[in-house]
Input
Amino acid sequence: MKLLIIEDEHKLVKLLKKGFEREGYEVDLAYDGLQGLNKALTGQHDVVILDLMLPGLDGFSILDKITTTNKSLAVVLLTARNELEDRVNGLDLGADDFIAKPFEFDELAARVRAVMRRKTPVDSTKIFVGDIMLDTVAHAAQRDQQTIALTGKEYELLEILMRNQGKIMTRNEIAENIWGENSSNSSNIIDVYVKRLRSKLKLDESGPELQSIRGIGYRFVDSSAEEMHASKMQLS
Output
């Protein structure tokens, strides 16, 4: 999951970058409005954390450009300006959320996660990763057209991982989605369910793979597709 922070306060940027990287995000930075707008419009980001008071170009102008160009890009406004008019203007221009300084990092991180959940596309009733198919209506999984018997929580975990194919899902994100906010003691439980999924889906390195990202969480990828892409790159 890729995050863009547009903020001119260097000390704050350093703290945010460290915190979000610890959460498993890939973090990109911009310290002025013009640089931030260029990165927002040309980069492949999932979320933008945007300050309103920036040198070069103000946050409202950047927000207006983003929301008219790429409506799928989530934007969380981060600013010292806590006037009601600013909040209303930001939300009317298409911001997904608004948080005022000073703030706690945990709250900002939670707001980013909430925004991403709302932005996750849910139109398709079937999700594919390699030869694994998940039917989100029937709550059923198949591999190579063979039905896999899953418990409710196993299914929920698999759906989260498959919807976010290729992205690192932190333990906190997984726990909050499956067990809710009171999930501080669920880390070991996640490991148990991951082990069960690997066994039931017969996962190995030749196809879909549920990777452990040490100290962060898990990522679901189609290894065969990645290898094919790498081979094409070498040949080109």
